[in-house]
Design brief:
mainly alpha, Farnesyl Diphosphate Synthase
Length: 295
């Protein structure tokens, strides 16, 4: 598989630099003490995997990353809003995120709620200023608004809360419930990173559906591998996660099956132009050290 490490590093730096400037420009009139909370929540940031996947999909379809920067920034803002709210005492009650105190632990619960709200609304303000045709802009705003609410993130978090006090269910029902939870809470926001470039270059519905499936698979793989990493480190053992419901061999099979299906779709429908996405897929899968996973 083609090594795209240099391209990945370049894209990560390009997005991170432009994203910081964008946020600074939007917050120019905000008082310094409030600005400090926003910057604490966004920078230096995590893996920026969502913008990178959007750029990789764009590259495959012939859409320049400069044309996708605004929607990529919007997705990253929405993602970070969701993390701030997920960490709250009334939700996951997390003390640390990205090796530092969570926003509510550092600045207080009320500030965390309001800054999360602000990041969500800022995402749509950013999109409204995207230099794109109105028809495309409206489609993307509509898509992201659905995914941010009951059509995605909010539903996923509600299901996560529901899982805390879930009555006894059969193993099969729990597995179905977990998959639906992950699809809404994680996969759909990754999926839109594949749909948006398709909307920008006006692909037909058939192609968009294929990219939707590929994006959903990327999202599932990302969350499953994240669950495994956390579980291996002794974290998240009380929550409903994939390592909680599947043994090592079954997890390996699930990951390999999704990976193979995704590679098949990329090869069949997008051919050699999908090299960058294949590289990112391999990076996601290879994050897992299977020997460290114990039940």
């Amino acid at each position: 598989m083609k090594d795209c490490s240099e391209l990945l590093e370049k894209d990560t730096k390009w997005f991170s630099d432009k994203f910081k400037i964008l946020v600074e420009n939007y917050l120019q009139e905000l008082q310094q003490r409030y600005k400090k909370i926003v910057f604490y929540s966004l920078f230096p940031g995590g893996k920026r995997i969502r913008p990178l996947l959007m750029f990789a999909c764009g590259k495959m379809l012939g859409v320049k990353k400069t044309c996708l920067f605004y929607p990529a920034a919007a997705v990253e803002l929405i993602h970070n809003y969701s993390l701030i709210h997920d960490d709250l005492p009334c939700m996951d009650n997390s003390d640390y995120r990205r090796n530092k105190l969570t926003v509510h632990r550092k600045f207080g619960e009320a500030s965390a709620v309001l800054v999360g709200d602000a990041l969500l609304t800022l995402a749509f303000e950013v999109l409204s200023n995207w230099d794109e045709e109105p028809e495309i802009k409206v489609k993307v705003i509509n898509l992201l608004s659905k995914i941010s609410g009951f059509g995605g993130l909010v539903k996923g978090q509600l299901m996560d809360i529901e899982s805390w006090d879930m009555p006894a269910k059969s193993s099969l029902n729990l597995k179905r419930f977990l998959e639906e939870l992950v699809i809404n809470k994680t996969s759909k926001l990754i999926q839109v990173c594949f749909i948006i470039p398709a909307i920008v270059c006006r692909l037909n519905k058939g192609k968009i559906n294929k990219l939707s499936k590929i994006g959903l698979n990327f999202g599932l793989l990302f969350q499953i591998t994240d669950d495994i990493i956390d579980y291996s480190a002794g974290e998240d053992k009380q929550n409903l996660t994939f390592p909680k419901l599947y043994d090592v061999e079954n997890l390996k099979k699930i990951v390999k099956d999704i990976e193979n299906e995704t590679l098949f779709f990329l090869d069949k429908h997008f051919g050699p132009q999908s090299f960058y996405l294949k590289f990112l897929l391999e990076r996601i899968v290879n994050r897992v050290t299977w020997n460290s996973l114990t039940k």
